[in-house]
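Entry 14. Ran structure prediction on the chain below.
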Amino acid sequence: MNKTTAKMKPMDDSSILQASAEVLTEEGEALKELGRSLNGHFVKAVETMMACKGRVIVTGMGKSGHVGRKIAATLASTGTPSYFVHPSEASHGDLGMIVNEDVVLALSNSGEVSEMVDLIQYTRRFSIPLIAMTSCADSTLASAADVSLILPRMREVCPMGLAPTTSTTMMMALGDALAVSIMSLRGFTAEDFHNFHPGGKLGKKLMRVRDLMHKGDEVPLVSEEEAMSQVLLVMTQKSLGCAGIVDASGNLVGIITDGDLRRHMNKDLTSHKACEIMTKSPMTVGPNALAAEVIKLINDNKRTQVFIVENGKPIGILHIHDLLRAGIA
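Output, structure tokens:
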């Protein structure tokens, strides 16, 4: 048994949950205070990063460095070229990664990190904009910076008040605020997001309907004057649980689903025309709709398929099973 284990105090479930809830509540209050503290310095930081013709270089030591890596990744994935430079490595050659057109975002709760001195001096020597994120307005980092984002002085939620907890939570959130503000100002679109996130679940949700839909002969279509016997044949052949009904101009005017067949099931069903059985104004989307939008549409309307139309004419169909097979739904 190690020393840490020997000092552990027994806690029941309710005590654990209460202690954890207090941590989250206290950090939540810190975030509220951070929001209230935003001022013109935040605006200037956003403007400085927006004007950057190079990259946003994020740096920090220890836990601030871990947060800095995440901020750099968030900025890069939302349209602001960015990467992380470790302050110690910077002193051993990595300063060469930073050029005049860059902006440096330096994170340090105390603002007095010795490993960051060379990097700070480098930005001053070559007139590289320096944005500080720190809790100490009179620190070396804040005093040297062109823009200082001062975190509210809030207690770390660790029992000893020492481990970076509340401060790193505020840094992370402030980094998100910077990234989202810049993203919004730049008009960053879902298409841009897809370009940076082509892989994984997120990339699949950002796929366009045109990339997933059935098209051509795979689309079950019949005319509104077609006999139901032919409609049943088309629905069976295409195996998508429905048939789209088109008028003489080729415009989609209705849909017949398996549910419609059950509701009208009787011995006279095959004697009817498609227009007599169809549900009018079927659910449709355009070919450029996002897969994520279609998932929501299908779920909200309790449907299993949607037709893709262009200028009123059906050019494809997408079934919920297509989304499942693609790993999207």
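The chain is about 45% helix and 15% strand. Will compare against last week's run tomorrow.
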